[in-house]
C-alpha cells in the first residue's frame, strides 16, 4: 500500500518533518516493536497455524535493522537536513554530498520494504487462519498497524523529506556559485 499524500501534510518544513518522523514514527517503532516480538515469542504453534519460527526471525531481524537505520538518521542525516534548512550557504557533509547518505537510506528502505512483503506473505496478508487463536488474531491486527505505519514512515522520508533536502542543497550550492 502506498499511503496517499493526503495522509501527510505536504506543507511541512524540513525541521517539522524531522521532528514528526522521530517523535511519531521512530518512537512508535521503539515502543511497539519489542512488545510485538515478545508477544510473538509467547505464542504457541497451536495459536497461529503459521510458520511461527520464520515470523519471529523476520520480526527480530526487521527490528534490529530498523534500530541501526533510525540511529543513522537521527545521528547524521536528520541533523544535516536541519542544518540545510537554516543555512545561508552550502553546508559541507563528511559523507561527500547530500545525495550519498540519502541514497544509503533509500537502499535500506528498499530492504525494509522487501521484509514487509515477506511479513505479509508469512501472515497471509495479516489474516488469521481458521482455527488460530483470538490472541493470534489480535496480535496480527497490531502487526498490521505496525507495518502500515512503517510504510507511511518510509513514504514521508523518501517522498517528502529527502526531495526537500536535495532541493535545499541545490539551492544553497546555486546561491554560492552566483555570489
Ligand atoms: Fe526514519
Ligand atoms: Fe528511514
Summarize the structure.
The protein has 179 residues and is mostly helical.
Summarize the topology.
Layout (H helix, E strand, L loop, with lengths): L13 H29 L2 H4 L3 H35 L12 H24 L11 H45 L1
Helix pairs in contact: 1-3, 1-5, 3-4, 4-5
Bound molecules: fe (ii) ion (2 copies).
Structural write-up:
The radius of gyration is 19 Å and the shape is elongated. It has 5 helices and no strands. By secondary structure, the chain is an all-alpha fold. The protein has one domain. The longest helix has 45 residues. It binds fe (ii) ion (2 copies).
Helical proportion, percent range: over 70%
Strand content: under 5%
Low-confidence runs (pLDDT<50, min 5 residues)? 1-7
Supply the number of helical segments.
5
Mean pLDDT: 90
Structural class comes to: mainly alpha
Biggest sheet record: none
What gap, in angstroms, lies between the N and C termini?
45 Å
Bound molecules: fe (ii) ion
Count of discrete structural domains: 1
Amino acid at each position: 500500500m502506498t499511503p496517499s499524500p493526503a495522509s501527510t501534510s505536504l506543507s511541512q518544513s524540513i525541521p517539522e518533518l524531522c521532528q514528526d518522523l522521530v517523535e511519531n514514527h521512530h518512537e512508535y517503532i521503539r515502543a511497539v516493536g519489542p512488545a510485538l516480538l515478545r508477544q510473538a515469542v509467547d505464542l504457541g504453534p497451536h495459536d497461529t497455524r503459521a510458520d511461527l519460527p520464520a515470523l519471529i526471525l523476520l520480526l527480530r531481524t526487521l527490528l534490529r535493522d530498523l534500530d541501526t537505520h533510525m540511529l543513522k538518521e537521527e545521528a547524521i542525516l536528520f541533523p544535516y537536513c536541519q542544518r540545510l534548512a537554516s543555512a545561508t550557504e552550502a553546508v559541507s557533509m563528511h559523507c561527500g554530498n547530500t545525495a550519498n547518505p540519502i541514497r544509503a537510506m533509500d537502499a535500506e528502505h528498499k530492504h525494509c520494504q522487501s521484509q514487509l512483503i515477506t511479513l505479509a506473505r508469512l501472515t497471509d496478508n495479516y489474516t488469521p487462519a481458521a482455527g488460530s487463536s483470538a490472541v493470534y488474531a489480535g496480535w496480527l491486527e497490531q502487526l498490521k498497524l505496525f507495518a502500515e505505519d512503517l510504510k507511511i514512515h518510509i513514504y514521508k522520508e523518501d517522498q517528502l523529506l529527502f526531495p526537500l533536502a536535495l532541493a535545499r542543497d541545490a539551492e544553497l550550492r546555486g546561491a554560492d556559485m552566483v555570489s
